[in-house]
Amino acid sequence: MESKIKELIEDLRPLLNQDGGDIEFIRYEDKFVYIKLTGACQNCGFQDETITYGIEAYLKEQVPEIEGVINVTL
To answer: What pTM did the predictor assign?
Structure first.
């Protein structure tokens, strides 16, 4: 499961890179994907929308077992 999620995140990376941002996979645990947005995405005012309507929607479409995406600030 984790390798599939990492592949899907790699598919999303170029979209975030276009705006100066990036995404890092942290872990998959209890049906939640933990990520870290970096670069321009880290402090963007649309961060929640990007996660919910972009990243989470795409991942859930591809892997229905996923219940959500959580952005981790380390």
So the answer is: 0.92
Show the tokens assigned to 12.
Answer: 């999303």
Residue type, 44: C
Q: Per-residue pLDDT tens for 27-56?
A: 999 999 999 999 999 888 999 999 999 999
> How far does Cα 18 stand from its chain's mean position?
15
Question: Tokens 């649309």 correspond to what residue?
Answer: 46
Q: Residue 44: which CATH number?
A: 3.30.300.130
Q: How far apart are CA 74 and CA 62, in angstroms?
A: 27
- Number of domains present in the structure of the chain: 1
